[in-house]
Amino acid sequence: MRRILLSLILCLQSASMSAASGVFHTTDFNGSRLVSLSLMERGPAHDPSFDFDVVITLSEIDRSGAVLYRDGGRHEASVRCVSPATVRVNSTDYAVDLSARPGIDWKHDLWARLCTAPAS
Q1: Which of 35, 37, 29, 85 has the alpha carbon at shortest distance from 61?
Q2: From CA 61, how far away is CA 69, in angstroms rounded?
Q3: Which of 5, 17, 39, 81 is least surrounded by Cβ atoms within 10 Å, i.e. has the fewest?
Q4: Which DSSP state fits 31?
Q5: Is the peptide bond before 102 cis (omega within 30 degrees of 0)?
Q6: pTM here?
Q7: CB-based contacts of 22, cutoff 8 Å, min separation 6
Q8: What's the pLDDT score for residue 75?
Q9: Are 67 and 29 in contact (CB under 8 A)?
Q10: From CA 101, how far away is CA 99, in angstroms rounded?
Q11: Whole-angstrom Cα distance, residue 120 to residue 118?
């Protein structure tokens, strides 16, 4: 019972850290480490055929939430919300599969974070 409670607490802590840090996609590798993609910056796109320009960061964490690696690079991308939904990275356009389940494809998760968020 104690182990189940600890696991639940760690999951909730991880979820709250993700929400606060801008994490939009997490991949589990072998059950021992997680790689998370986060929005570091976002703004209006310079290219009028896109809606957002973003900077993405990458972090690797272990199951306890300790950061094992934080990528210092600035990975830039552009996102188009309207049809055809697209994520552009290094001048390559990737079609976004809008029917994909959350958590499967980072490009879908990035698009969903930016394009389906409630407007204030």
Answers
A1: 35
A2: 7
A3: 5
A4: T
A5: no
A6: 0.77
A7: 38, 39, 40
A8: 95
A9: no
A10: 7
A11: 6
pLDDT higher than 90, residue 57: yes
28 near 104, Cβ under 8 Å? Answer: no
Asked if 50 and 88 touch (Cβ cutoff 8 Å), the reply is yes
Give Cα 86 to chain centroid, integer Å. Answer: 15
* Confidence check: pLDDT of 86 > 90: yes
Tokens in use for 62?
């272990």
What is the per-residue pLDDT for 47?
A: 96
Residue 59 has pLDDT above 90, yes or no: yes
